[in-house]
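Appendix B, Record 12. Input sequence as logged:
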Amino acid sequence: MALGSKYKTAPGAGTIAALILVLVFGSPWYGDWAADNTNENTAGGWWLRLLHWPAWQFDTSDSLRDVVVGDLRAILLVLLTFLFLVLLPGSQLARARGTISQFFAGWGAYIFAGGLASLLATLFLANPSMLGAFQAAGSGAQYGLFVGWVVGLASLGGRRGTRV
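Logged structural output:
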């Protein structure tokens, strides 16, 4: 039996989209490809490089702390996306599934998750600073703003969890 849209939840679909974005575009292989094949001075090249922002790695030449902090940002991005998708009221207040409020709730959840994940991960750096935390949060929110529409689209049409 195929699982139809009546079993799709907006937070679940948005979280799966976030996980796929992080696994595929945050991978070291995609990062190497983007660095070698794109021009950062063009809009398309800039966006393709931005997709790699929640980078995760398995590089043994880096310190364990740097690897964990990089991976922590990617993990927190997915977990916080789910949390914000559940907590944001836009799609909960919508009368019908598939409304524009679900799109904006998913997009907003990814913006908030990107900023907060980067802010929290920065606190685990060797010498964290307030300026560094603010700059990291800004880069995470920038990533969410330009990539979060994918999560917003994935959230469209899903129901809001269990039925009461």
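The chain has one domain: 9-155.
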